[in-house]
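Researcher: I'd like a structural prediction for the single chain below. Treat it as a standalone chain; there are no partners to consider.
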Amino acid sequence: MSMLRPALTLAALFLWAGTLVAAECKPPRTPEATVLGMTYCVDPAFAATIATRVQQIRADVRAQRQAGKFIIYASTPISSRGGGNERVNLEVSASVKARLEREYGPAVWVLDPGAYQMPPVGGRSPGGDEYMLMWAQVLAGDDGAGRDFDLVHFTGPGDMRAFFGCGGGDVTGCIDRYAQSRATADGDFRRTVATDPVRRSAFVRYYALRASSAFSKGAHDEWNIVVRINRRRALGEQVAVFFDGRAASPAGMETEISPGYEVR
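Model: Treating it as a single chain, here is the predicted structure.
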């Protein structure tokens, strides 16, 4: 009997933890675990869409591998959280891909997550949990070793400023001038950002002071995904990690940060 008690206690702890995760997921969302042990509250209506997208992205990566390319995953914030603008962020994401491919040369292909947006299902748009379940599967692969990727680049302030054409001086003024210039050709941006003092101020603050994957929930999860991948790989065979164009330290490559959408 004494030998059974530790096993029963451990089983009870796992059951308790599973109950807590399930409680975090409000219907219709249900907990979905990844091969890395990360769990997301996902709407089951998106299951087929996520599976299709994962297959599509893996096929695109495989085609580039077969062409002899090294593969970089570029993590760029997409949502409008904190004052950002989703359309602008999608353009930033595409610009980071183009710039990295120029920098590294034709031997490299950069995966731009912004190019793989999911459509609404049943009148509902996918949320961060749906996207992170998809990207966790893409990044980790079936065995959690992330064999499809050679480097993960996390977008930082320098990447953002390069998109806006901001140099070393008057960054806030540069972002504000961008907002004014974009408003002349983009009616939606003019209505929702440029002519609204509160939103325009939030836009300038975000892109001048905070524009970075450091402020993105999805990027936080992507960082932790790469950390868990690297813990599974042999020293010398780990996925390279860069933030804002600079290599992460050995400690950073293996240190998790606060989770974004992951349920813990």
